[in-house]
Design goal:
Two copies of one chain form a homodimer. By secondary structure, the first copy, chain A, is α/β, with parallel strands linked by helices. Chain A has two domains: 275 residues, Aminopeptidase (3-Layer(aba) Sandwich); 121 residues, Alpha-Beta Plaits (2-Layer Sandwich), CATH 3.30.70.360. Chain A contains 14 helices and 20 strands. The first copy, chain A, has a six-stranded mixed beta sheet with strand order 1-2-6-3-7-19, covered by helices on one side. In chain A, strands 10, 12, 14, 15, 16 and 18 form a six-stranded mixed beta sheet that branches. In chain A, helix 1 crosses helix 4, helix 2 packs antiparallel against helix 4 and helix 4 crosses helix 14. The longest helix of chain A has 20 residues. At the A-B interface, strand 10, strand 11, helix 7, helix 10 and strand 12 of A face strand 10, strand 11, helix 7, helix 10 and strand 12 of B. Strand 12 of chain A pairs antiparallel with strand 12 of chain B, so a sheet runs across the interface.
Chain lengths: 450, 450
């Protein structure tokens, strides 16, 4: 791989420049801003690699999937990425504009530089380096790049289940990955699912003077009490019947978990906190993080939130609540239990709107695509034994894209715990970026042999 | 009073035009918008009546008090009003622009038309009519018009306590009043107090990906649980020790309460609800409304509140909470009990910022100023016995302006239950406006005799 590595070394400045241009294009799935332009930019990147590319309309007037095929061979690798990003607010907390990627002390800052445009670009550039130095690809690559991952891929599942021919593969390289606090390469074999809902309370026909707080119903209070009925201050999820569906980790899962060097102190410091919630620490915190579902208030709003005091009794209140789902919790199950729970606890008036739903999914560690990634990691990071996560705490459409078709999957990439994905000042460490590119070369070689 | 009434009748169109101009000037205490211009406009109105007027600086760079003196006599009437208004949001719910007062079906719509600019204007126009038709005023009027009532008069109390000479009077006519659902004139003899605070939770150094909801502290959840510890779903205030300070209504209070024809069905319909909270109805609802304190979430905000789903774990959450205070609850007592309660229940990390504080205060019904108003109401509304509220459920600085100086007070005016004060589409019924003007003439005559 010397010529491959040398090619990367001599092209570093050009690669960074190309990456900055790629990440400068806004592509916010939640608002639609820049999505069309980003799909075209991504299509062009794939075409420049020599791929045959289609823009797949997965639903009318929704972000298309960029679907690229390149290389030949008996084996097929499916790659999954997404070209959309999270919204940028609160904008005033960014130290440089989110869509003007900016280099500071070896890191590139900007929305999407880690999640997920950096991961598209290191793979593009690794394949370009491979084609320039190693010859043809040893297998076929079908690259599936969607544009609404950050809104929970709302149209992906029916499309994927109806188009197994586009997705069927011997292995799948998933969207992201990276190194942990100590710089160890981290590989992941699955992802949690998600149910994301909006709860709305309308308690009166309109806002009233707060003097009526004595006798008239306050939407903010009703929402507050309904939320408190979902989760206790000790972090126990109280939705009737929900926890019964949670599959405990298997022996294989626990063995993988035990091998993970959980850098607890560094992660706590990174989040600016002294201890975890729910009284857990060490191995128990890690086990909880990966194998317990969440019930998270992602946003709440009611009444007057401007400057100074306003004595109003709010008639309307809204909360966005996200549930991360572990095997065997499905979004359908949780949605049904949530409705039943609210009805039973006196909150039948609270409206539930479904904003996102995804199944959890994971892969057994002995799959060829996993072993190829493990071997690649050992080559690029010789000082560290790779860390294998049986699944990640985040979510992606692993089920409709891979797991539902029997395709094993693995994640590796260029991120790190300080990447601030989904938050202001998202960033990527350039050293990690180029190491992921080197690993991609080894992974192509290894998966080609297996 | 025939000539007085005739003067009003012939000047109705001009009076409405003058009122619209007066209410067109924004004067939002919470943001400062238009306050300086409104103080000047108010000063000019007073000067045009022949008053000697001062702009009193009650605190540096804060809205001045317009203080006007007119008339001569052994007796002094203090009038209290305010020229500031509430913010206008949510702006999209207004059917006409809040600062372009608009006539529709006998009502004038605009921010402040009821609270409190309509009440300044009917009094100005009544005095003008008196001077034009009845001669000199039979007593001295000191008119105190402040500019930060809607933010809880934050600088008024120390100023008033230090300037008793400006305030000392034989009676005080308070800012507002009106008719009830059946058109009966309503007089009020006091007001509740207020403590308005902002609660802030900072759970981590910054927002995180919601995958960390398993183990990292969510500011929105902490705030939610803290709020739920303050008031139960059955509306019981749970703050340790608070209810012990509540003075039950006296026999005189209960006698006044029992004489109030509580138009329950009309009020319920007006608010768009089927029943009151806390299981009360009829007399119990009225008693609760006037003699129980409130604990109201006036606003809450955390995390992502834009369109679509965003899977974020919020590091920061804020709630605005207002407490309406009945005798003998003081803002100081409630602030202290709230801090103790949060500390005791595991929420010592929650920051409390004081945004507003006012004492409750009320007057005995046998005071001359009250009896003069009752007699005036009987003359203008011969079909109805006036309804006397021992105190109103709303708040104003009755304590520092009147009660603390031993001045009895009464409220009457031009509002009605559909006025939507503090809310979109605030309005005033013009018939009520002119009847309040007639009543002001009779009140001047009656108070002059007593």
């Amino acid at each position: 791989m010397e010529t491959f590595d040398a090619y990367i070394e001599t092209h570093k400045d050009a690669f960074i420049k190309e990456f900055i241009t790629f990440a400068s294009q806004p592509s916010i799935a939640a608002t639609g801003e820049g999505i069309t332009e980003m799909a075209e930019l991504t299509r062009q990147k794939m075409a420049d690699l020599g791929a045959s590319v289609q823009l797949l309309e997965i639903a009318p007037n929704e972000p298309p999937v960029v679907y690229a095929s390149l290389g030949q061979g008996d084996k097929t690798l499916l790659i999954y990425n997404h070209y959309d990003v999270q919204p940028v607010d609160p904008l005033d907390l960014w130290e440089s504009p989110p869509f003007q990627p900016t280099l500071r002390q070896g890191k590139l800052y900007g929305r999407g530089v880690s999640d997920n445009k950096g991961h598209i670009m290191y793979r593009v550039q690794a394949i370009r380096a491979w084609l320039a130095t190693m010859g043809d690809l040893p297998f076929r690559i079908n690259w599936f790049i969607e544009g609404e991952e950050e809104t929970g891929s709302p149209h992906l599942e029916p499309f994927c289940l109806a188009h197994a021919d586009l997705l069927k593969a011997d292995g799948c390289l998933w969207e992201t990955g990276g190194v942990d606090e100590a710089g160890r390469p981290v590989l992941s074999l699955g992802a949690k699912g998600l149910l994301y809902v909006e709860l709305t309370v309308q308690s009166m026909s309109g806002d009233q003077h707060s003097a009526y707080g004595t006798i008239a119903p306050n939407a903010a209070w009703r929402l507050n009490w309904a939320l408190s009925s979902l989760k206790a201050p000790d972090e126990t999820i109280l939705i009737d019947g929900l926890m019964e569906h949670v599959l405990p980790p298997s022996d294989t899962d626990l063995a993988l978990l035990k091998a993970i060097p959980f850098e607890e102190e560094a992660l706590l410091a990174n989040l600016g906190i002294k201890q975890w919630i729910a009284g857990v620490s060490g191995f128990e915190a890690l086990k909880r993080h990966l194998f317990q579902p969440t019930c998270t208030i992602c946003g709440i709003e009611s009444g007057y939130t401007g400057a100074g005091p306003k004595t109003v009794l709010p008639a309307r209140a809204k909360a966005k609540v996200g549930f991360r789902l572990v095997p065997n919790l499905t979004p359908q199950t949780v949605a049904k239990l949530l409705r039943q729970h609210l009805d039973k606890h006196g909150f039948a008036d609270i409206q539930i709107d479904l904003l996102s739903a995804e199944h959890p999914g994971k892969t057994a560690p002995d799959a060829a695509v996993v072993q190829a990634a493990i071997a690649a990691a050992r080559e690029v990071y010789p000082k560290h034994e790779p860390v294998i996560y049986p699944l990640i705490a985040g979510t992606g459409p692993v089920w409709p894209v891979a797991v539902a078709h029997g395709t094993p999957l693995v994640c590796f990439g260029a991120s790190y715990p300080g990447a601030k994905i989904h938050a202001p000042n998202e960033n990527i460490v350039l050293d990690n970026y180029f190491q992921a590119m080197q690993m991609m070369g080894r992974f192509i070689a290894n998966f080609g042999k297996r």
